[in-house]
Amino acid sequence: MLYHERKANKRGFRHIAGIDEAGRGPLAGPVVAASIILRQVRFKHRIDDSKKLTARARLLAYGEILEKAWIGVGIVSEKIIDRINIYNATVLAMEKAVNNLGIKPDFLLVDGRIKLKTACGRSHIIKGDSKSLSIACASIIAKVTRDEIMREYHKKYPRYGFSRHKGYATREHVRRLMKHGPSPIHRASFNPVKKMIQEVT
Predict the structure, then answer these.
(1) Was domain 3-149 assigned CATH 1.20.1200.10?
(2) Which pLDDT belongs to residue 22?
(3) Sheet architecture: strand order including 69-76
(4) How many CA atoms lie within 13 A of 114 on its CB side?
């Protein structure tokens, strides 16, 4: 999981940041990105693509990452997602995450093909959260952060069950959406939310 970090290291880069996001696909809530520069590379808890970890394993890894890395988080709301589209919102969240690191990276390892507007050198790694320790850590931070945001939204809008599905288009979520209509945090540009709004107006 350190191949890409070591490759960048050999090219003379020292502050190598892994970047990933959570929440591109849901019907509700923000998109969250995280940027991670590792201070240590040995972990006692499993570090992997956040989707491959249980909720408990993610929390254990999350706590250890906080101790062993510089961390920046970027959050872009559903309102901005609707205004600039999910791709541009993801770019914005990732750029915010890099800017919030507190230490300037000199090289970026970016999960997938998201093109950031930065002069910093970078490498785009498909399925990077399974191939790079830095990106895997970023995926865990982004996922845990977003899940907590959605749990807080559940307290405000309990009828939608956000604490369980985190805004993704599960059968339960769609059923509740059809019953109650969109909440203020639903993405108006995403179907079936968009279709429902069009039918009402």
Answers:
(1) no
(2) 98
(3) 69-76, 31-38, 16-22, 107-111, 121-125
(4) 25
Hunting for tokens 């960048």 — which residue is that?
Answer: 8
What gap in Å lies between CA 65 and CA 42, rounded to an integer? 10
User: What tokens does 163 get?
Assistant: 């604490």
The answer, as to whether pTM is greater than 0.85, is yes
Separation CA 118–CA 24 (nearest Å): 21
Residue showing tokens 């300037």:
104
Tokens of 161: 């069950």
72: β partners? 35
Domain boundary assignment for the chain: 3-149
CB 47 within 8 A of CB 136: yes
For residue 143, give the H/E element and its range. helix 133-156
Q: In 10 A of CB 91, how many CB atoms?
A: 21
Gyration radius from the chain CA atoms:
17
In terms of C-beta density within 10 A (0-12 exposed, 13-18 middle, 19 or more buried), how is residue 156 classed? exposed
Per-residue model confidence as pLDDT tens digits over 94-112:
999 999 998 999 999 999 9
Which tokens sit at 49? Answer: 């693509």
Q: Give Cα 138 distance to the centre of its chain.
A: 8
